[in-house]
Amino acid sequence: KAGVTQTPRYLIKTRGQQVTLSCSPISGHRSVSWYQQTPGQGLQFLFEYFSETQRNKGNFPGRFSGRQFSNSRSEMNVSTLELGDSALYLCASGDSYGYTFGSGTRLTVV
Amino acid sequence: QKEVEQNSGPLSVPEGAIASLNCTYSDRGSQSFFWYRQYSGKSPELIMFIYSNGDKEDGRFTAQLNKASQYVSLLIRDSQPSDSATYLCAVKKNNFNKFYFGSGTKLNVKP
Fold this sequence. Notes:
The complex is a heterodimer of chains A (about 110) and B (about 110). Chain A is mostly beta strands and about 110 residues long. Chain A has strands spanning about 5, 10-15, 20-25, 30-40, 40-50, 55, 65-70, 75-80, 85-95, 100, 105-110.
């Protein structure tokens, strides 16, 4: 059974640009969540999608957005990038028994 | 107050010893509790979850939950150097898949 697939693995962007990250969940999982991980803040919840609807949202500015498609694949978009957005972005799919995380996208903003 | 608190460590134990990792949570209504392991440069992987008060064992790992004290722990028996990683405690409050993570405890198992 394939795991959670995130693309790309690494990204370098310039301040002010925007970026789109992609996540394909485990087959059959309808819930996809996104997290930001930084050394200082740890794992912080961005949002969760379930059957194409955003069910939960964390405390991030509106520059962070996402969507989920009918095949459960999800994308996350960050507009007007700031240096502080440099982080590991993790996507996870799962159910009540826990998440399975993808390998993450390492975003560096310069 | 943070939702989930963990001692950042590092916690150092000799090979073969029992490692004890602790976590407290603030919301008494929290429903389920998870332990993840994260190796440096890798994504977190689920070790085990627990819902009910008491102990749950899986191989060398035992999760312990005390809802009255709002306390979760993970015991690793016969610790191995390969167990050296950061252990993340996560709490789920309701039926939605929103997990609150602690900042993690770094475990070093010395050969």
